[in-house]
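Structure tokens please, single chain.
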Amino acid sequence: MKKGTQDKKIKKILIIAGIAAGILLTAYIGISIYFMSHFCFRTKLNGTGVSGYSADKVLRDWQDEIKNYKLEITERDGTVDELKGDDIGLELQWDDTVKNLIKKQNGFTWINRLFDPDNITSYAIVTFDKTKFDAAVKELNCMSDKMQVMPVDATASEYDKDDGFTVVEAVDGTAIDPDSFIKGIEDCIYGLKENYDISKDGGYIQPQIKGDNDGLKSAVDKMNEYAKSVITYQIGDDTDVLDAGTFGEWLEIQDDMSVTIDTDKILAYVKGLEKKYNTFGRAEKLATSYGQTVTIDNNHYGWKIDEDAEAEQIKNDIEGGEPVTRDLNYKYTANSHTGNDYGNSYVEINLTAQHLFVYKDGSLVVESDFVSGNTSKGNGTPTGVFGLTYKQKDATLNGENYSTPVSFWMPFNGNVGMHDATWRSTFGGVIYKSRGSHGCVNLPYSVAETIYNTVEKNYPILVYELPGTENTAAADKDAAGTVISAIDEIGEVTLESADAISSARSQYDSLSDTAKSYVSNYQALVDAETYYAQLQEQAQQEAVQQPEADQQEVQPSADPQAPQTDEEQPAADAGTQ
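Here you go.
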């Protein structure tokens, strides 16, 4: 009994289930058949909901909308433009387009639409006049030139001493993105939508970088790391500081969001330092040992910043992000940043006086006469400011026609230098004018040795001329020697000696009193002048007497054959001597 009852219950359940399944299947088939001529659930056509619509229903509804269709276009500032259907020749296409779209959707898949909405796009349902459309769009306010303001990407701020670098948000412009804008409007028209918001629907040109860009934020963080760098230059008694207040504007964010430092701006900064601290090449002033100050051009000594090395060091220091205190990088260095760059240790060479002084830490080490380049042969020693190139013992100086060994060689201007000259017995005066060197400064052996033991590489050498400091005694002796030679050249005095005697006298008279005292043969000049005067007087007398004698010789006697008396004889003898 129990088993029979249980079987009946199962049979009943199966019957009910079968009926339910049949109902559901019938419903599914019925709905599927329905959706063979209607759009499925959750379906949009050109953005407009058409769930359960037949093709006729869609066309009737859209026909009504087309009659008074108007699209409102909202700009970023709230201004609203209108684009009317009549303005663009908007029309509905009465064809099988919508029916074909329904057939294509497969009504038996309507259950899928419950979970997966279907958005159908078709530009064949409505149509418009492209020419009218283009003209109408061109007249929109948002398309005017004044509204084409380009957006600005988010970027880093200028450096602020309190806030450092921060992100500056992007600025939305009002420049239209033609492709996106036209497509957006067309989509609205095809779907008969009544509103188009340019900002929300993507019709504007958008900033490429927004404030929330991770790369930008990382770049700003990197710039703030760099901003921790402070370079304090300690240059003698002067201090210069380079910090982010200056180099902040040198930092640049590249397209890949890396941070770089503008090397051109670094170099420009270094050039500013050069104007302030370089002394190399500038005229030097020297308070000479003669009490006068001279200005010396042709300066090859002094401070000169190494541009490339300093620029690279600045870049490295900034990237290091740490405070540093240091001096500049130099190509050439000098003794002092305070006052004269040569300081109080230098060699002072006065070519005019042919005398030099060597100072060390402000004290005179040695001074001496010397012989410089032979000016009569164009080998004069050049003036200028130089640093000692190097020093060498037991060197051989080679030239076009000489090879000379020296014990102490100290070049400072190419092949021009100071050295001992043991072949000379005298120094100073005006020897250099006619018997000078090939350009070097010749020194007594002991002086050259003292200088060699005092100076080192880059020791300042200041070479100048100072009129009025000539060695007058030597000059007087030299001038006197010229006059002595002129007197000696007179030789035996004759009536032809006039020019030689006159030249010697003129040269003598132009001498200073001191120089005249050195003319050892002056009496010979006086004697020559005296004797020459006598010769002139005698010649004049003979010139007067000769016509008288000539007259007596040609005068006829009364009787040529007549004998002469004894008184007449002396007269005749005198006329023929």
